Amino acid sequence: MPVRARGLTIEGADGRRYLDCLSGAGALALGHNHPVVLEAVRRVLDSGAPLSVLDLATPVKDAFVTELFRTLPPGLADRARIQFCGPAGTDAVEAAFTLVRAATGRTGLLAFTGAYHGMTAGALAASGGAGDVGVARLPYPQDYRCPFGIGGPVGAELAARWTESLLDDPKSGVPLPAGMILEPVQGEGGVLPAPDDWLRRMRTITADRSVPLIADEIQTGVGRTGAFWAVGHSGITPDVMVLSKAIGGSLPLAVVVYRDDLDVWQPGAHAGTFRGNQLAMAAGAATLAYVRENGLAERAAALGSRMLSRLRRLQTELPCVGDVRGRGLMIGVELVDPEGENTGPGHGAPGASSAGVHGAIPSALEPVRAPRPADPELAAAVQRECLNRGLIVELGGRHAAVVRILPPLTISDEQAAAVLDRLSDAIAAAARHQQHHGRRRHHGQHHGPAPHIGRQP
């Protein structure tokens, strides 16, 4: 039960202090109660300005839009329009669907397996959570559990060719859609960074067929992945961006930013009562400016790379750690059953890493060893062990077996080391407990101490 918080730290009603690596599911780019956010909110409160104004222009709103547009991909910022909608990311997703359907006159959508775009009906359908025949789902490339059993650039190439075939085959049963929505890094899907070459390929495929590309930057935006917007890693310019979470500086705010030639919908085509939240706009503008002016995206890239490197050492020491992946300060650790049989698609075909996304596909691929089965029970145990050690983490992935780390971008090197120490201890303790209970049936084999990965020797 949290009662106070500052930065990375939450103080509970029990008097204990916890390191918060959930950060409001990524909404707290600067952590809890950052001084620049509090000051921005106080200024609005003390000014006597209205707090909710629907679509009216205000100095606070103008400052937010100016700061937001300063950070957008250059190819979009010069031609962008903005729509304020309801306060949650799922509202922005629904608004984006309404936008592209109005602009194209088409109704269908392309989305990707493992996606998460929100909890309203249209967003759920695009996330694979509802059976909407208007949504065609495509394979999202990944290495560890590649749907083609290959991984690497070859797996990404197969995923791209699948997409092309679906759109160009007159017998595919999928008419030309109103838009394609994708996450540059799948978050709830298990922290899966899209390959940059594949993203560029999706941009080309959609542009060549006049299909608007919607980038869901709700969780990846505002420096989280090591670039201000995750599409920046690949250099693509989407037609539409849906933004929420961190853009409100910890308060509810969501917007759709889109290219001006798509702006053919009627006024009021998508609205929301709380689209004029002045406190959120003030907090958001302060957050966007602070991240930009202090180079926090670059800081996330450097620190995230070091954290991934240390976690990968843990992967070599504990067989229950199946995969470590991420981008910037969006990190995932997938836990597996080390005694389970290898099932499902494999990864890392020999020679795959030397091929480009547009490269030739080998005529014959050697058998690839599949990963161990995901272990959601172990992941839940690790989450509990983390909490016992004063560390708050989230679970995600297809089987809820991925421990997700989303610290604020203001995390210090010392705090990052403490996070990794506690996480490694928690994984080792949970694995020992699971092995002990399982191995009572196997003559009680002994297991060594927990490895430490926090600080470099």
UniProtKB/TrEMBL annotation:
Xref: InterPro entries: Aminotrans_3, Aminotrans_3_PPA_site, Dat, PyrdxlP-dep_Trfase, PyrdxlP-dep_Trfase_major, PyrdxlP-dep_Trfase_small
Organism: Streptomyces bungoensis
Family: Belongs to the class-III pyridoxal-phosphate-dependent aminotransferase family.
Leading EC class: transferase
EC number annotated for this UniProt entry: 2.6.1.76
Basic residues compositional bias, start-end: 433-446
Cofactor(s) recorded in Swiss-Prot or TrEMBL: pyridoxal 5'-phosphate
GO molecular function: diaminobutyrate-2-oxoglutarate transaminase activity; pyridoxal phosphate binding
Domain of life: Bacteria
Transmembrane helix found in the keyword field: no
Stretch forming the signal peptide: none
Pfam families: Aminotran_3 (PF00202)
PANTHER family for this protein: DIAMINOBUTYRATE--2-OXOGLUTARATE AMINOTRANSFERASE
Biased composition (Low complexity): 350-359, 447-457
Name the record gives this protein: Diaminobutyrate--2-oxoglutarate transaminase
